[in-house]
C-alpha cells in the first residue's frame, strides 16, 4: 500500500514537472519571437529615417 502511494506521488510529480518545463519553454520561445519582431520594427524605422 505504501509503495503504491509513493509510486503514484513520484509519477504525478514527474508529469507535473515535465508539463511545467514544456510550458515554460514555449512561453520563452514566444517571448523571444515577440522581442525579435519588435527589434526588427525598430531597425526598419531607423533605416527609414537615415
Describe the structure using short key phrases.
0% strand, rod-shaped, 50 residues, mainly alpha
Question: How would you describe this protein?
Answer:
The protein has 50 residues and is mainly alpha-helical. The chain is built from 1 helix and no strands. The protein has one helix at 2-48. The longest helix is centred in the middle third of the chain and has 47 residues, at 2-48. The mean pLDDT is 85.
Distance between the termini: 74 Å
- Give helix and strand order, one letter per element, not per position: H
Mind telling me the C-alpha Rg? 22 Å
Q: What is the general shape?
A: rod-shaped
Uncertain segments are none
Number of alpha- plus pi-helical segments: 1
Helix and strand layout, with pairings?
Elements: H1 2-48
What's this, in brief?
This protein has one helix and no strands. The chain has 50 residues and is mainly alpha-helical.
Amino acid at each position: 500500500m505504501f509503495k503504491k502511494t509513493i509510486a503514484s506521488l513520484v509519477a504525478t510529480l514527474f508529469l507535473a514537472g515535465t508539463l511545467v518545463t514544456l510550458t515554460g519553454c514555449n512561453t520563452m520561445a514566444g517571448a523571444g519571437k515577440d522581442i525579435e519582431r519588435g527589434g526588427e520594427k525598430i531597425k526598419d524605422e531607423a533605416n527609414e529615417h537615415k
